[in-house]
């Protein structure tokens, strides 16, 4: 058979298959009795960050489904979603953003790509498109200033607060800020926007405390770190703040640290590369590694236990996680909390704008997101998330929220929480000042008039 | 039946040397151009900003790569690096030169990229083939490293992801996807026309002579130094312009990590799949490599919806994409441009067999 024939036959086959599929799609009955609210899911299920992507977006999707099954949606509004694969690639994510922007006659309310470079890629578009950029703990830090960035929210924290919290933890361990003088801290980071994000705050604090700060970048995907760890050993570093992503990079860091004999309990992992998957990749040598948590892991929280019961138990098969054992892990719980924010914001928006039981628009949703309030213990208990996140509320001016974390330590099997309470910066006002200064500088350079905020 | 040259006589040299000697081709290209200009009136924002703009921009870059690899035969792997040069040059020009029109900035960014390209093209005078590819790989890493290392390029932005300035020309801000598309279309059309003319003129013949046998070309009196460096310069110019447009008209951010080695490889694949040494192939190849994964993603999500695990779907898409490339290269190693050519030949006979 000649190649042309094969091509032609192949083509006709594809055409026939396409026609059948098209017919199948068209013939799906359109049921629209129940009002719907549409959420985009910008997932990353392939590539180096798939452990994070499957966990977080599995959690998001599970919570949306859980609300539908358990409560019949939000005041009767069914939650639907559409997924797009970004592969943690900024160009792909922009395509996804544009693709998911409209679905039928509904526009998406928010964008949550779970990647700092991906958040940066759309941060200039969201205001014009009336889309909330929900960068929960990641993304552009100075966007925590709601006067300059009305459409961007960082609940529950951001990277400057996180690095300040790490340094606060270190100074507590060392016995006070006056003991920090002359100590050497290495910021070992992946060489992307995400890895560099904490540096402005870190440099300031290091200067104020007299800490010798060494910045060592690792080219992504970070599977080769031998020379960096040798450099750390030569510098006789006291602590390493590790800012990586992906189980491969995290595992390499731990094994390389072990090879040069750097104590693991002096390494502090970042929230985004610090999950069970990252520790397991490091093997037995990962024991004692410190990891910062934004959302606590575990199934002891009523919400997670109930999601497992409703979606997974007895082979219910309604869950999104391919491996049900991952329910309750760091990434999964973080995804659930991200979706709790979506749903709470939607509920607020319906209430504020008198649209209970109706779909809302982007602008209404934005108001709802700004009204997120977890300060009431009763409300946290009602949601089943008490203790999982710090109590906080967002305001017009403060789009960051709590800015506090827990410190955990890996005991070889699971994380143990070592900080007594939610821990933030040693001087949160100083971090807030840095954020507002940076945001005001940005506003000035780009001729943005500051929004008037009462609080 | 319709695509026949019978009855069309060329009676002057000018007629003989035009780009499209066939009347049908001229009509066809005119229809395509008019359609391309009018497209924004029917296409929505998604099609314009997420499909057409990146497709045109990457076609331009593939064209640059094709000039170097397909016409001049210099295997190079640094195209994304040159794109980065173009993007950052454009950012810095607009930042530091008051009131510079966007087109001028883009053209100058192309020139910057060309200068860098000449420097990294120097090894081509001594090494060839795969060895040259390895040498040009250095340019990719060096450029991205340098942009990260020296904060001046990024105007001391701490995060290193810069929001691209608006596209301003003649006192007008080209902000909407439609206006951006027209800017990109105009630049790409002009450069593609130039490339076509270079390729079929004496410049292109020089490249092809060097590609086919450089010793013979030198014996015929061609300066290898000039021809090779010219190919590197022009190719890098196209990549630089493409990079500037990629950052300003598509991503709207400027950051080195957008221009990784992975992008270089994808551009290389575009040229190989599209057809080495063809202008048309650059457009077809860019379309295939860029749009096929998107099409598969949309298609599978549309067909299976949420009934199949999305992780499996994403993996299957990549497998299918890979299989398609392999199958295609086995059955048509000369690329999509060759398929197009065969179609045209068959069209001349259609509806008859012989």
From TrEMBL, chain A:
The lineage of its organism: Bacteria, Pseudomonadati, Pseudomonadota, Alphaproteobacteria, Hyphomicrobiales. Residues 1-32 form the signal peptide. Belongs to the leucine-binding protein family. This is ABC transporter permease. It comes from Bradyrhizobium jicamae. It holds the Pfam family Peripla_BP_6. Keywords: Signal. It comes from the Bacteria. The keyword DNA-binding does not apply. Gene3D superfamilies: 3.40.50.2300. Residues 45-412 form the Leucine-binding protein domain. InterPro entries: Leu-bd, Peripla_BP_I. PANTHER family: BLR6548 PROTEIN.
From TrEMBL, chain B:
It is found in: Cell membrane. InterPro entries: ABC_transp_permease, LivM-like. The chain crosses the membrane at residues 27-46, 75-94, 100-122, 129-147, 181-199, 229-251, 283-304, 310-331. It is a multi-pass membrane protein. CDD domains: TM_PBP1_LivM_like. It comes from the Bacteria. GO terms for cellular component: plasma membrane. It holds the Pfam family BPD_transp_2. Keywords: Cell membrane, Membrane, Transmembrane, Transmembrane helix. GO terms for molecular function: branched-chain amino acid transmembrane transporter activity. This is ABC transporter permease. It comes from Bradyrhizobium jicamae.
